[in-house]
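QA checklist item 7 of 12: single-chain prediction sanity check.
[x] sequence parsed
[x] length recorded as 412
[x] structure emitted
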Amino acid sequence: MNKWKDHFGFPETQGRYGFLLVLIIDAFGAGLFLPLSILYFQVTANFPLPVIGLALTIATVCALPVSLITGSLVDRFGARRITAISQLIQAIGFLGYLFVHTVPVLFGMAFLVTAGGRIFFAASASLIVDMASPHELDRWFGLVGVIRNVGLGIGGLLAGLVLATNNPDIYRMLIGSSALCYLVAGCLLLRLSEPGQRHHEQVAMVPYTTILQNRLFIIFLISNISFPLCSMMLGTAFPVYVTEAVHAPGWVPGPALMLNSLLIIGCQTLVVRLMEPFRRTRALGAAALAWCISCGCFALALIIPVFLVIPYLFLVVSIHTLASILYGPTASSLVADLGPVALRGRYLAMYEFSWGVASALTPALFSNLYVVTPALPWFFLAGLVSASGMSLLWLERRLPAQVVRAKKQDII
């Protein structure tokens, strides 16, 4: 490996460029759609916002179990095929968006897109494990996180440039482009050869109850739920909280969330390299501490003097982002190494399922706590993530050594 790649925490990518291209195209397609996810139906079909929100929420909830089904399919048929199928399903859903004029059709296409996304995240995690060398697993998850943020950022920027036009035809063109991205990515992935050894033939009939008997994994999943809640709260709660409760200028959320993406793009792989000498559980504990601090600081923003509030919010967003950087690749790698290789697809699918549950809970959790008092969601998360951090320290002494370490070297 080149010295500069090792210094900045990049894994060895030789022979994997086709897979990286697939991930880039997929992320770009997602970036084109996300800024339009609600506005598109308002502009092209004249649906009221409450109807759009309800249809998309029901579709999201109905798609949650798909992650668990995906795990079995990955273990049986391989991550590459299932990941490609997920992209083709999303392509069909986005093409269907071009013909949405009734609420039932909206729900049906939204279910395809959402289910395809759930399948993708559950299957692509196993695909990353197949691509990675065992000692570079954390680096690969870090690199994929950077790729996704770059693709989302570029796609989102292009989509944002046309939002002000309010032109239905341009909106449809972007949705069509997004569908094309998923179609190209899925077809390209189907043409690539398998990146690693296949184990699914051995486990076709093994039930999910086998995983439920792994007490340490179940404890990890339960304690883990606070982490995706914290991660998602930034995009869900931050814009409303800082403008309505903190009374910061309306332009603050945009640049602050852009800072979040830029920090991930610029620092993710480097932070992964710096954390390699340490136990993964220590990295997750550091993430819990950073989230606890940032959530507490967000709550305290209500009493910060007006002339300090803008730099204060940007600082807290940076701390919140640092927690995400520490958490993302580390947690995925820990789960991948925690279970038997033959059941890895199901272990990773259950982990992704916890993210799906968190995505469904976050809006309701924030809105119900926010109406009590604006600072309550942040105080609640600070307490919850503190408990999760302490549970990880308890798990550290009970997990196998090969699970808690990122590289085959002395650990701290």
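[x] summary fact logged: Confidence is low (pLDDT under 50) at residues 199-203.
[ ] second reviewer sign-off
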